[in-house]
């Protein structure tokens, strides 16, 4: 019981009709003033902030779309760059192959020219050697004829003996070896 007496003695819990009316009037006036001068501006700020947030979200969406578009464009440019690089490499390979082929052809032509020149030199040397051999054979024939006959022959005799000896020699064997 003591607890119920203590609660009933508390002045804050007692119902006082005059205080209750003045409290309701004070609350109503405070609510009206707040509604008129505080809630309106606060609501306007909240609405403005909501609008700024919506605009920021829209701008972020636009930025995202722009970034996506730029990314696609970047990928496209990279693809084009790779394609161009491949074309440049293919062209460089083609040029290198053409140059390699040209150098090979020039080398082959030079080799053929040198081979032909060497053949001509060999033929000239062979012809010169054959002429020299003929001259030496003719001289040896004259010396042998002089020793055999024991007399000195005249120029016409020499020429006749040389021609006969040269005709009798078979130089075709030497020429076949040369080829």
Structural class: mainly alpha
Give me the Rg, rounded. Answer: 64 Å
Amino- and carboxy-terminal Cα gap: 151 Å
- Biggest β-sheet: count, sense, barrel? none
Work out the helicity level.
over 70%
Mean pLDDT: 84
Count the strands? 0
Number of helices: 4
Low-confidence spans? 1-6
Tell me the overall shape: rod-shaped
Portion in beta strands: under 5%
Order of helices and strands: HHHH
For the structure shown, list the relevant keywords:
179 residues; 0% strand; disordered N terminus
What this model shows, in words?
The protein is an all-alpha fold and 179 residues long. The protein is built from four helices and no strands. Helix 2 (17-149) packs across helix 3. The termini are far apart.
Gist?
By secondary structure, the chain is an all-alpha fold. The chain has helices at 2-9, 17-149, 155-168, 172-178.
Furnish the topology, listing elements before pairings.
Blueprint lengths: L1 H8 L7 H133 L5 H14 L3 H7 L1
């Amino acid at each position: 019981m003591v607890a119920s007496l203590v609660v009933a003695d508390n002045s804050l819990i007692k119902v006082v009709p005059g205080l209750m009316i003045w409290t309701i009037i004070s609350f109503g006036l405070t609510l009206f003033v707040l509604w008129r001068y505080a809630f309106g501006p606060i609501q306007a700020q909240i609405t403005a902030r909501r609008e700024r947030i919506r605009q920021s979200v829209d701008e972020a969406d636009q930025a995202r779309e722009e970034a996506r578009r730029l990314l696609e464009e970047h990928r496209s440019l990279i693809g084009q760059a790779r394609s161009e690089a491949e074309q440049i490499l293919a062209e460089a390979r083609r040029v290198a192959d053409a140059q390699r082929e040209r150098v090979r052809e020039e080398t082959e032509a030079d080799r053929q020219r040198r081979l032909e020149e060497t053949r001509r030199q060999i033929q000239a040397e062979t012809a010169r050697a054959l002429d020299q051999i003929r001259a030496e054979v003719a001289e040896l024939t004259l010396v042998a004829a002089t020793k055999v006959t024991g007399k000195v022959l005249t120029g016409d005799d020499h020429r006749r003996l040389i021609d006969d000896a040269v005709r009798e020699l078979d130089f075709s064997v030497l020429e076949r070896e040369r080829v």
